[in-house]
Structures are given as C-alpha cells and as structure tokens.
Known about the structure:
By secondary structure, this protein is an alpha/beta fold. It has a single domain, classed as P-loop containing nucleotide triphosphate hydrolases (Rossmann fold, 3-Layer(aba) Sandwich). The two termini are 18 Å apart. It has ten helices and five strands. The longest helix is centred in the last third of the chain and has 21 residues, at 181-201. The model has no long low-confidence stretch (mean pLDDT 93). Bound molecules: adenosine-5'-diphosphate. The site of adenosine-5'-diphosphate has 16 residues, from helix 2 and helix 3.
Amino acid sequence: MADRFPSILLFGAPGAGKGTQGKVLAAVPGMFHHSSGEVFRDLGPDTEAGRTFMEYSNRGELVPDDVTIRVWRDNLDQQIRDGKYNPGSDLLVLDGIPRSANQARLMDQHIQVHKIVHLGCEDNEALIARLRKRAIEQNRMDDAKEEVIRRRFEVYRSETRPVLDHYSPPLIAEVNAIGTPMRVLRDILSVLVPVQEQIFHSK
Ligand code: ADP
C-alpha cells in the first residue's frame, strides 16, 4: 500500500461548499482538486457511464459504487498522464468521493487519507437555498427540482454521512460551512497547511 495517493477529503452535505472551496484550493500549487461530480458531468451522454450518471443524478441518487470507483480512478490516471496531477508533490483534494461507506472501503487501496475536512451545517434550509441559487447560475438539472434536492439530503444522511465512521476520529476536522467563503477558506487552510507541510516537506 506504499503507493497510495496522499489525500484529504472535503466532506459535507450538498451545498456545503465543497466545490467552491475545492476550486480555490486547486489554484494553489501543490494541491490537486478532484471532484467526482465534475468528472461525471464531463462524461457526456455518449458514454455508458455518462448515461448511468444522468439516470441516477436526475433522481438525486448515488451512482453505483463499482461505476463510480472505476470512473474516478480512470479519470485520475488520465490527469496523471496529462501531467496535471503529480502524486509525488501534490496533495489530492477529493470532493464528493467517497460518498458511501462501501466506497470508502474500496478506496482504501488507492488513497491514504491524511485529513477529512467536514464542512458542517445543521441547517438544511440554508443549504437548500444555496442549491436553488446554483441551479440558476450553473444550469444544473439535479438542483432544479425540489423533490430531487430533498432526496439528495436524505441520501446524504443515510448513505454518505456514515463515511465518517470509516475513519479514525482524529482525522476529522470540523469546519463551520456557514459564513463568508473567505472565512470558511481561512478555517480550511488552518487545518490543511500543517497537513500539507508534514507530508511533503518533512521528507
Ligand atoms: P452535490 O455535492 O451537490 O451533491 P455533486 O456535483 O458532488 O453534487 O454530485 C452530483 C451527483 O453526481 C450526485 O447527486 C450523484 O448522483 C453523482 N455522484 C457524484 N459523486 C458520486 C459518488 N462518489 N458516488 C456516487 N454518485 C456520485
């Protein structure tokens, strides 16, 4: 298991800000942001996996684990071949994956998780308001229907939240998802800076 990718997980409910913060972190040299939702959306309707994604995401459900892990790993390998991700010097910032306890188990052979940033928010209505805004800004079908949004929160509670139980509690850092993006960013950085320095600069 020596060659597992050094990783941190951005974790939280839909609308918690994983993508927003992940994009900012991606701009910093030494960080590589990889969002499973973006990877899926880029597949397009010409591929079987792309059609599977549409089918499940339009209902607010998770794409089956085997498809998810395969698509994720294939895309990551492509990013390495393209020279965009260098596992020897970049911290992998995973956003949206693993999203079930089974995915977490399957990914143990691929990644070494150094920290989980849990963007926490108990106020689902605040998150739902963010998704409604995003539906308009980004033209996302899975954000547009109220029943699909509600289903995503239910799936988060029953399938995704248990991912946290897979990891040892000291790995989990709680960050309040409510606040300005700058404030949330500052809190995430205060968690990640020591992690990144410890992994890549203590060798
Ligand atoms: P959000 O964080 O708002 O739920 P994402 O862009 O991360 O949005 O994901 C959109 C959809 O893509 C999910 O509702 C799900 O159908 C699918 N998806 C993304 N990541 C995974 C995953 N790890 N496992 C299964 N399905 C996934």
